[in-house]
Amino acid sequence: MQTIIQKLDNEERLNENEANKLWDFDLFTLGKYAQKIRTKLHGKKVYFNINRHINPTNICADTCKFCAFSAHRKNPNPYTMTHEQIMNIIDETVQRDTKEIHIVSAHNKNTSWEWYLEIFRMIKQKYPFLHIKALTAAEVDFLSRAFNMSYEQIIEKMLEYGVDSMPGGGAEIFDEEIRKKICHGKVSGQNWLKIHKLWHEKGRQSNATMLFGHIEDRKHRTNHMIRLRELQDQTGGFNAFIPLVWQQDNSFITNKKPLGSVEILKTLSIARIVLDNIKNIKAYWATMGINLAMVAQDFGANDLDGTIEKESIQSAGGAKSANGLNLKTFIELIQSSGYVAIERDSLYNELKTY
User: Fold this and answer.
1) Is residue 183 marked as binding?
2) What confidence tens digit (pLDDT) does each residue in 227-263 have?
């Protein structure tokens, strides 16, 4: 333990074995070191953006046990939106100064690849200033398999049709034994990393996620972070890491006790310590709740995501995120916590200080 403390004091990188031992430290020791890193990088700033989440379909070819969003499991209301319906949402949200459109779909084999991609061109033609964050690596993998195209071909089409950056969804936990149990048939952990590497090699940025609190062990979380760190050493393309707290309502994973706040905050703090080459750690309020997300700003996180407006995936599993949060609430929560509210764009350029 003393060797690890010395390395933390000297701000030296921990290897995977050392990182696994961090779980034995108490929360406040981890928080002290995580917050030291956070303060060095960001001071008292807490970032957020004004964004709109859109989930165009919930009909999915994959059967992930942790998911409550997919229509063919416990969600009895299948839907697929038309491009016109999506554009109506875009028209409305632009009036509220939204700057990012975040589009993630299920894997709908009843559509065409053009249905997935053409909407991005439509958005860009009408609102060229909007940043489009769309198509997870899991969606890229699905489109590749469904329409017999390589990852490279899909990525070229993403660029052609107007996608600006990739969300981090579909990462779940990289360990393949865990994936066999919770999302067999979906993109592998190795291919998730490959797709993001290909995207980064095009000079584009993406987010990275980790879904935790289901059947994984702590060592699986650590390994997930180390593998992200290794790719970031190669490409530098991840602009944020987002630990997603699993939502258990309506899931096919049963008899699992929800994680407590201490375990969630420990995970955030260890992520801040281990991921020394990813600048931003997001406490995604849609999965951990806004109150705990604010506390997480004292344990290494520096971002809350955004106003969202409408969210369907996490809320289907029980999260209180269906209708987003308004801008005034965001700013007041950050300021009352002793931090400085910073509106950012999708790539972490600062737009406004409150």
Assistant:
1) no
2) 999 999 999 999 999 999 987 766 666 666 788 999 9
